[in-house]
Amino acid sequence: MDLLRERLIECGWKDEMKALCRAFMKKKGRSNVTVDDLVHVITPKGRASIPDSIKAELLQRIRAFLVQASV
């Protein structure tokens, strides 16, 4: 999880998601937005915008861990 967090920060993903949240809150009005609203709107965009290189790196590390753990 730490590696994922680090990579997402490095590529600017976190800042992008923060900007999307702020834009949504500005559009709807801060007092009219719940956490559930943010999660519903931002989650699909967040998942879709994770760079493929990060997904591939994490998948490789998970596979390596599973191979090592099974020995």
TrEMBL record:
Signal sequence segment: none
Domain of life of the native organism: Eukaryota
Gene3D superfamilies: 1.10.246.140
Record-level GO BP terms: chromatin organization; mRNA export from nucleus; protein transport; transcription elongation by RNA polymerase II
UniProt subcellular location: Nucleus, Nucleoplasm
Keyword annotations from UniProtKB, A to Z: Activator, Chromatin regulator, mRNA transport, Nucleus, Protein transport, Transcription, Transcription regulation, Translocation, Transport
GO CC term (a single one): nuclear pore
Record has Protein transport as a keyword: yes
Transferase listed as a keyword: no
UniProt xrefs under InterPro entries: TF_ENY2 (IPR018783), TF_EnY2_sf (IPR038212)
Recorded GO MF terms: transcription coactivator activity
UniProt xrefs under Pfam families: EnY2 (PF10163)
Its biological purpose: Involved in mRNA export coupled transcription activation by association with both the TREX-2 and the SAGA complexes. The transcription regulatory histone acetylation (HAT) complex SAGA is a multiprotein complex that activates transcription by remodeling chromatin and mediating histone acetylation and deubiquitination. Within the SAGA complex, participates to a subcomplex that specifically deubiquitinates histones. The SAGA complex is recruited to specific gene promoters by activators, where it is required for transcription.
Record text on subunit structure and interactions: Component of the nuclear pore complex (NPC)-associated TREX-2 complex (transcription and export complex 2). Component of the SAGA transcription coactivator-HAT complex. Within the SAGA complex, participates to a subcomplex of SAGA called the DUB module (deubiquitination module).
PANTHER family linked to this entry: ENHANCER OF YELLOW 2 TRANSCRIPTION FACTOR (PTHR12514)
Record-stated family: Belongs to the ENY2 family.
Protein name according to UniProt: Transcription and mRNA export factor ENY2
Species of provenance: Linum tenue
Phylogenetic lineage: Eukaryota, Viridiplantae, Streptophyta, Embryophyta, Tracheophyta
